[in-house]
Amino acid sequence: MAKDTFYTAVDIGTDKVTSIMSRVGSEGELKVLGTGVVASQGMHKGQIENLEEVQETVRTSLEEAQRYIGKGVPTGVYASVTGTHLTCLNTREIVDNPDDVGDISSRLLDRLIRGSFPDVSPTQEVLHVIPSGYHVDGLGGIRNPVGLHGNLVEVEAHVVIGDAVSLRNTVKVIEANKASVKSLVLHSLASAEATLNGDERELGVVLVDIGGGTTDIAIYRQGQPWYSAVIPVGGSQLTKDLSVALKTPMYLTEEMKIKWGSVMPESIAAEEEVVIPSFQGQPKHSLSRRFLCEPLHARMLELIKMIVLKVRQSGLREFPPGGIVLTGGGADMTGIVHLFQKTLGGQVRVAYPDGIAGLPAQLKKPAFSASVGLLLWGIKHQGETRSSLNLGRSMPGNKPWGWGFGKKRAAAVK
Ligand SMILES: Nc1ncnc2c1ncn2[C@@H]1O[C@H](COP(=O)(O)OP(=O)(O)OP(=O)(O)O)[C@@H](O)[C@H]1O
Ligand SMILES: [Mg+2]
Fold first, then answer.
1. How far apart, in Å, are the Cα atoms of 292 and each of 252, 270, 304, 331, 343?
2. Is there an atom of ligand 1 within 6 Å of 212 CB?
3. Cβ of residue 335 lying under 6 Å from some atom of ligand 1
4. May I ask the CATH architecture of the domain 197-350?
5. Lowest mean per-residue pLDDT among 19-23, 358-362, 378-382
6. What are the helix (H) ranges across 204-262?
7. What is the percent of the chain where pLDDT is above 90?
8. Pocket residue to mutate for ligand 1, from 54, 332, 369, 374, most atoms within 8 A of Cβ
9. Residue 82 alpha carbon, nearest atom of ligand 1
């Protein structure tokens, strides 16, 4: 494996900030060296609302992850980004490879992919340009055309664009902690890295990461990302609805949601009761568990409707054969698979982060799919440097990020 053997993931979520430090050994095995999970502050619906508070939680989380390693691990950070400012599009770009030039070279491919960068406004930044397939002289389905003979080379790419200030703020909170940002990664693509299997990606699948403040969607087709979207509703909305319905404070409601909550109230016996503990001078009292679950059911149905809308906006008429893969902390909700299946049909599963042997038990939960996925993303795209993406249209502060197009770019088109 190449020199870059340390990988650090920082997933700045609305509910929690997770830092994971890891190392890839000589046999290619990944070992988690330290983990820091800290309750978030200063985040709202996946975006930084209070820079100082987020900086502080990132610091605590990084320090916790570093506790057993000591200082000075040589590492750049792979950090997740989400928020409704992120949009996507699919592009096509063609380049001519004259007869006297010979076989298709990686330089030509670089030029082709650089050409795929869309023009964005000065307030936006290109986060990802992910080549999804090539055509050579009209022949499609080519994953890597380097070395092939051909005159007309065409690339299809999935492009993700975001608000420059939001993206820069994520870089800021990491760099304020004396770490460097190797790459910013769209949250849903990071989650997909740790959860989707090859068959699902090929068949077509809808990945849904239900977090605290957002629900992040990524649709894969023919092995590659094809659509991504962010819905500004997550598990905390369910807690809020329940809190309003029961008139209970948020901290207590969150506990009750996790303990007794279900989005399938009809599966709960009509006579089952739960005891709401006393709070703020209110006496404890019993309540129908079905009644408690009604607002959760209603909000999850709303969320499903929004997911369907996004899938339609993607251009798909129906859900792809690989079905729906649910992850993120919200996917731990009782009854969720049942409700999705009942409402939408098809394959539905809850995914736990996978792909790392010996992953600490603490991280084997849907809530950690994105943070584990960031590490896997880093390993997969290790040769790509954080280089200027905007190719001259560099952003203020000259801190561009994301996909580089260096020597190992071919890894991106595997
Ligand atoms: N067992 C459970 N049952 C129901 N909900 C749960 C359970 N465990 C966690 N959650 C919910 O998951 C949400 C947090 O998910 P997660 O940790 O993935 O969020 P995050 O990554 O911090 O946020 P985001 O990705 O939206 O910025 C919370 O709303 C929490 O209530
Ligand atoms: Mg998250």
1. 13, 12, 20, 19, 21
2. yes
3. no
4. 2-Layer Sandwich (3.30)
5. 378-382
6. 235-246, 250-260
7. 77
8. 332
9. 27
Of 157, 117, 193, nearest to 377 by C-alpha is 193
Residue pair 95/153 in contact by the 8 Å Cβ criterion: yes
Read off the pLDDT of each residue in 217-242 and give the average, rounded to a whole number: 97
Tokens 């770490």 sit on residue: 179
Fill in the DSSP letter of residue 105: P
264 pLDDT band, cuts 50/70/90, is: very high
- Indicate the domain borders of the chain: 197-350
Predicted TM-score of the model (pTM):
0.91
The confidence score (pLDDT) of residue 28 equals 79
Closest by CA position to 296, among listed 259, 248, 334, 262: 262
The stretches of 27-162 forming alpha helices (DSSP H) are 51-66, 106-116
What are the phi and psi torsion angles at 365 (to 5°)? -140, 150
pLDDT at 404 over 50: no
Which pLDDT score, from 0 to 100, does residue 409 have?
Answer: 28
Residue 45's closest CA among 226, 200, 240? Answer: 240
Q: 58 C-alpha to center of ligand 2: Å?
A: 14
Please give the backbone phi and psi of residue 120, each rounded to the nearest 5 degrees, phi first.
-125, 160
